């Protein structure tokens, strides 16, 4: 007997997808042999008729039961009319869902925990702990550079007179914006550093045009990571994208400041 | 998927290596050391200025952690891949923009996923829109607001999204050529 489980990924450790019709993958398990395969759901694009494509796939694979977070009444009706049992309200990993199905626990769960509520009200401790750990790691990864940038800014604020820095910028909106865009394109790193550096530059009299261009290009233009982008997405894509992003930063910075000034009166 | 593994923050940001971070930190500390040797009062003044900046960042950074936690709790790379649209129309561009906004982690960590999506038929427009909208970081907004104010952040965010759509259409038209 074959069971299809809507999945977010291609492994048994992947999460059960909330929506049957538009889930990225369907993991089809043969309960008799223990063999399984992950099949990309042709309906994952979410376009009209996506559910039908998922139903066709399930039926073509000879599946007898579908386990998912949620299935539309129409999809459920079509599946059941073709002899496929549908179990909804399931969350957790594919492995857990499979075990639950084998033990006959899923039917009980579906009545107690409808899918949308499941996600928000019945979060597992492990999920919360995992999110905390990931956030802790991400935050910790941000701190060393952030700490060094703050120390450098303290040094900068003390040693570099504000007037000197301001004199490097012409005061002309377009030239200052271009300077800011060049600086942001060369420097890379977490955007939080661009906010802090930009904020401190503002205090030193650097124009908001330049600071805005710096903040925008900091992430959108990446000379440092250009080789990686070329390797992944191709030379033409990477070069054209970065060039347009650089050019776009200028009108966006100019418009931001102009609109802000209009609002501020 | 590489992007999933790199999402946990152990990788450094934007391609900066661990060696680079250590060298940068050593450079800054050495600068303080040299300054303290020649002008201790100025070095202490610089330290006080740094402490002042750090204090002003305490509240925004605690909010950053909170939003980061919520995003990690409810948004997974698989969800982002699901939101990401392969269509080049306006709806597709907006969905890709949303995927870019909620995505976290260094940009290079997303290249493998983008490459894979492209191989599966995703257009250049949606990919460019996704990458552009990574400039909008919901979890970093508290810091940005603390420095520049609500109005500025709102304007720059809206214009960034609009700019990304322009970029998306441009990239789509180039790929058609």
Notes on the protein architecture:
The complex is a heterodimer of chains A (265) and B (177). Chain A has helices at residues 50-60, 73-81, 94-102, 106-112, 115-121, 125-159, 162-168, 173-186, 191-203, 208-220, 226-233, 235-264; strands spanning 2-7, 25-30, 36-40, 63-67, 85-87. Chain A has 265 residues and is of the alpha/beta class. A five-stranded mixed beta sheet of chain A has the order 3-2-1-4-5, with helices on both faces. Chain A folds into two domains: 2-122, Nucleotidyltransferase, domain 5, CATH 3.30.420.130; 160-264, no CATH class. The radius of gyration of chain A is 27 Å and the shape is elongated. The longest helix of chain A has 35 residues, at 125-159. Chain B has 177 residues and is mostly helical. Chain B has one domain (2-176). Chain B contains nine helices and no strands. Chain B has helices at residues 2-6, 18-38, 40-74, 77-83, 90-102, 111-119, 124-133, 141-148, 150-176. Chain B starts with a helix and ends with a helix. Mean pLDDT of chain B is 79; it is low at 1-16. The interface between A and B is large, with 82 and 80 residues.
